[in-house]
Write a structure and sequence with these properties.
The chain is built from five helices and seven strands, in the order H-E-H-E-H-E-E-H-E-H-E-E. It has a seven-stranded mixed β-sheet with strand order 3-2-1-4-5-7-6, sandwiched between helices. Bound molecules: S-adenosylmethionine.
Length: about 190
């Protein structure tokens, strides 16, 4: 069980929710693989009987994540996909319980390769269709880099308009932090329509 000792990291706060949502045997998605921290966490959470699909458009992300997974012998329960998350529906047919987005750029890599509003929204739309009832899409949003604020505004425009009969949408943020604190948005699918 992850404990957010201090309320400083949006990724830790996210995990407080994910702990309640993800069970052993689940099929889940890391929509933004990056250096594989979230993929590894998800692979541990779903256990041997579960499965993780993980997406990134950078070869570098695949290499770094593969290495991380092999070190822990978790590679058999993860499919690393070199493609945009907007194409998620080409790879997954079964119902899934969680999709994790960690938007922005790959730390230490080229900062011009960032997630973008159009593809992010497309991927969220597809993800919501793939979710099983009470499944959750989790989106960590950063606005400190060029393009980040536009992306945040697009995500908020989209989630604000989701029908509350179908989805619960929660936002978490640091209201007194300077320098563009991140936001966390969680979308729960209430039932299948
Ligand atoms: C903030 S990083 C993710 C960090 C990662 N979750 C981790 O645990 O290290 C964002 C990642 O999204 C990737 N990305 C950008 N556009 C994408 C797209 N259309 N589909 C999938 N990944 C994308 C970037 O290449 C980058 O690696």
């Amino acid at each position: 069980m992850i404990k957010a000792k201090y309320l400083t990291k949006i990724t830790d706060i996210n995990k407080l929710y994910l702990e309640q949502i993800i069970n052993e045997g689940d099929i889940v998605v890391d929509a933004t693989m990056g250096n594989g921290y979230d993929t590894k966490y998800l692979a541990e959470k779903v256990g041997e009987s579960g499965f993780v699909y993980s997406f990134d458009i950078q070869e570098e992300a695949i290499k770094s994540t593969r290495k991380k997974l092999e070190k822990e012998n978790l590679q058999e329960r993860v499919k690393l996909i070199l493609d945009g998350h907007e194409n998620i529906d080409n790879y997954i047919e079964k119902k899934i319980s969680c999709v994790v987005f960690n938007l922005g750029y790959l730390p230490r890599a080229q900062h011009m390769i960032i997630t973008k509003p159009n593809t992010t929204i497309k991927a969220i739309e597809h993800s919501l269709k793939l979710l099983k009832p009470h499944g959750v899409v989790s989106i960590s949003i950063y606005t400190g880099h060029p393009g980040g604020l536009d992306e945040k505004n697009s995500v908020y425009d989209f989630v604000k308009n989701l029908d509350q009969r179908e989805f619960n949408v929660l936002e978490c943020g640091f209201v007194n932090q300077v320098n563009n604190p991140p936001q966390l948005v969680l979308i729960e699918k209430k039932k299948e329509y």
